[in-house]
Amino acid sequence: MKHLFLTAALTSSLLLTSASLPAQSTQAAPAATEAQPWKQIPIPPLHAFKPAQPRRIELPNGLVIFLQEDHELPFIEGTILIRGGNRDEPTGKTGLVSLYGETWRTSGTDTIDGDKLDDELEAKAASLETSGGGASTSMTWSSLKGDFDTVFAAAVDLLLHPTFKEDKLQLAKQQLNTSISRRNDDAGGIAHREAIKLAYGAHNPYARELEYATVDAVKLDDLKAWHDRTVVASNIIIAVSGDFDSAAMEAKLRAAFEPLPRGQRLQTAKVTFTDPKPGVNFVEKDDVNQSNVLIVGLGTERSNPDYYALSVMNQIFSGGFGSRVVQNVRTKLGLAYSVEGSYGASYDHPGVFFVEAATKSATTVAAAKALLAEIDRLKTDPPTPAELSKAKDQVLNSFIFHYDSPDKTLGEQVTLAFYGYPADTLEKYKTGIEKVTAADVSRVANKYIDTSKLAILVVGNESQIAPKIDTLGKVTNLDIAIPPPPAGKSAE
């Protein structure tokens, strides 16, 4: 932001200086402008997108392996992705998977505790980590090629023979409790959290929050039960990339994982998604002098045939400094310090559609109205040829750089396999974007965006907001107070 203000100041200074120059000094300016030699530089079309595909192997027990050779550096990296994440944990024990992911690694195994494992890995400049996420838990490791066998053996030991320790669980709980105690410190964090709750519903598995009570409810036996339930062959995808021979690596992985029982693949419970209740929602934050304004609703899934058109629409609407919301709400109207948005698309459930502005308290209502106007304009003003061309170029250029190395392509192929997408999904993306027309953008804008199914959220200092928030409609005040810990328990 400093750079933006500095640029504006320099621009103003230059304009003032040129205005004071003699007439003969300013006459040369149009010629320099007309030349514009950079416009003569030819821009070649993008090459065909053919990412290096990893080798896929499925073992008889259902475990899937992806191998991606990359001999540029003498390193080998691996990931074990295990189905089952935060969305699958019991509501009354929200936080279980996060605690599991942390305690798993710090506790160590039957043969080596986590602290000693830290020392051994550090001596090799290697790493071995575990974590819990929304849809999965994972184990990752990396090492020099020469240390692979030792580090891989440690990873297999940790996967198959963990020992969950009470003191490490308590340490992980303290860390989560600290994050709970501080979750209302930042206005932006409050805004994003409450926006997701408005879009999905507060009790939806994709929006529910940690509380002291739910963290306290998780016991050591819960971690062990989760491990036994999820670490089975049919639930696991393994990806290895780096400087190795695929045949030799396959043999090592088969020897380690073919004996693993197939088990039952975890099935995520079906979740019903409904549009948020329209209206104005307000969170009081009396220690700030600005407002975070969000308009929020449901997005889509990546499997949607309209995903390509929606991606281009999203770029036109909110994709960077040249987008409509930035150019109009921030640059022309001067109503926001920052503006951003996204028509979110998740792999197996709807993403979140949002547009957000950080604005002065006094311009809160004006900023909200301007955001709503830009949403409406998407439905009535088709993209110009220049807008469409620029948006498609930006989307494609960004996409290509996401997969410009073998390890990036491997990561995406693992994700696609995890969610059941075809292996050629990446190759189809470029063609799908190129085919999008202005008519497609207008069609999806009218099909998927309905302002009557969007919620408005404001986080700010009510005493400084004028006109008042109720100018936008009936206001619901959201309670973000943090429930206290169970009796006799400490918050941290």
Sequence of strands across the biggest β-sheet: 9-10-11-8-12-7-13
How many helices in DSSP terms? 18
Per the principal axes of the C-alpha atoms, what is the gross shape?
Answer: globular
Q: Which spans of ≥5 residues are poorly predicted at pLDDT below 50?
A: 1-32
Helical content, roughly? 40-55%
How far apart lie the N and C ends?
35 Å
Q: What about the largest sheet?
A: 7 strands, mixed
Residue share in β-strands: 15-25%
Oligomer: single chain
What does the model show?
The longest helix has 18 residues. The chain is 43% helix and 18% strand. It has 492 residues and is an alpha/beta fold. A 7-stranded mixed β-sheet has the order 9-10-11-8-12-7-13, sandwiched between helices. Strands 1-2-6-3-5-4 form a 6-stranded mixed β-sheet, with helices on both faces.
Topology diagram in text:
Elements: H1 2-19, H2 23-26, H3 29-35, E1 55-58, E2 64-69, E3 75-83, H4 96-107, H5 114-123, E4 127-132, E5 136-144, H6 148-160, H7 166-181, H8 187-200, H9 212-216, H10 220-230, E6 236-242, H11 246-257, E7 279-284, E8 290-298, E9 300-301, H12 307-318, H13 324-332, E10 338-346, E11 350-360, H14 364-380, H15 385-402, H16 406-418, H17 425-434, H18 438-448, E12 455-460, E13 475-477
Parallel strand pairs: 2-6, 7-12, 7-13, 9-10
Antiparallel strand pairs: 1-2, 3-5, 3-6, 4-5, 8-11, 8-12, 10-11
Helix pairs in contact: 4-7, 4-10, 12-15, 12-18, 13-14
